[in-house]
Design a protein that fits this description.
Layout (H helix, E strand, L loop, with lengths): L6 E8 L8 E8 L4 E6 L5 H8 L7 E6 L2 E2 L5 H8 L2 E4 L11 H12 L4 H14 L15 H12 L6 E5 L7 H18 L2 E6 L2 H7 L2 E6 L3 E6 L1 H5 L4 H8 L15 H4 L7
Parallel strand pairs: 3-8, 3-9, 6-7, 7-8
Antiparallel strand pairs: 1-2, 1-4, 4-5, 9-10
């Protein structure tokens, strides 16, 4: 990857309680200025990984390193400073429905800077223009489509010119055209701004098309494989092949681990 990763996950183990481990001794590096996609089934810890990078939760063990600094969730000054350097696109946009498109994008600028309103206006219109929505600045959130809302959220995520942009399921619920537009925007923004991009998704084709590096995780926060898109698509590993090709049968099982059905109904288990 690189000798100087922007984000490093160093032997991180994490669980929300003692009953289930979400991430298990996970070590990853996210290269500076590149698009890294993290793929995996539901519940494998992808979104949890973003939360640890954002300092929402501390790791149970191991280190999360942000541009050379170990994240300390008890250090509020550090968290504020580091979060100022990242942008986040939430899974369903998380837009403020009582604010206009313009005011949604202006929100982080008004909250985290002392810029005059005239300059904020210029920045917001520039960011909206970058995602093709300058003409929608005055609309209410209820007046925009799902795909447009995702682009509004993207404009808000890049309002502060972040060095790290994290996307949580940016393609979820989008039609094919909107999905293609979103994917192109993610790739273009990375190339133009030089930001480090971390992309969490289930959408294999879109991720393979725009990513420089791909990480595949499995249940329990286990690292299955990582490499270039071409390397993962050509992999002969059964678990990798099943996921990237969407095959129903293979090492990844449909059912969450459970005791025999008969045991739940008080019936004798026949062996």
């Amino acid at each position: 990857m690189t000798s100087s990763p922007f984000i490093e996950i160093d032997h991180v183990t994490f669980g929300y309680d003692s009953r289930r481990t979400i991430l298990n001794d996970l070590s990853l590096q996210f290269a500076r200025g590149k698009v890294t996609a993290v793929l995996g089934g539901s519940g494998c810890g992808k979104t949890t990984l973003l939360r640890l990078i954002g300092g929402v939760h501390p790791a149970n063990s191991g280190r999360v390193v942000f541009d050379g600094e170990v994240i300390n969730t008890r250090d509020k000054a550090q968290l504020f400073r580091l979060r100022r350097r990242l942008g986040m696109l939430f899974q369903f946009g998380a837009l403020f429905t009582d604010l206009s498109v313009f005011d949604n994008v202006a929100f982080p600028l008004r909250e985290m800077t002392d810029l005059p309103e005239a300059l904020i206006k210029d920045i917001v219109l520039m960011k909206l223009n970058a995602v093709g929505l300058r003409g929608a600045a005055g609309l209410k959130i209820s007046e925009v489509s799902g795909g447009m809302g995702r682009r509004v959220a993207l404009a808000r995520a890049i309002a502060l010119d972040p060095e790290l942009i994290m996307y949580d399921e940016p393609f979820a619920g989008l039609d094919l055209v909107s999905m293609g537009v979103a994917a192109k925007l993610i790739r273009t923004l990375t190339d133009v701004t030089g930001a480090t991009t971390l992309l969490i998704s289930h959408d294999v084709p879109q991720c393979m098309a725009i990513s420089d590096w791909v990480v595949l995780m499995a249940a329990g926060g286990r690292l299955v494989a990582q490499g270039t898109p071409a390397e993962l698509m050509d992999s002969t590993d059964p678990e990798v092949r099943q996921f990237v090709r969407g095959e129903p049968d293979g090492p990844v099982k449909f059912h969450y681990p459970a005791p025999p059905v008969a045991a739940d109904f008080g019936l004798e288990v026949v062996r």
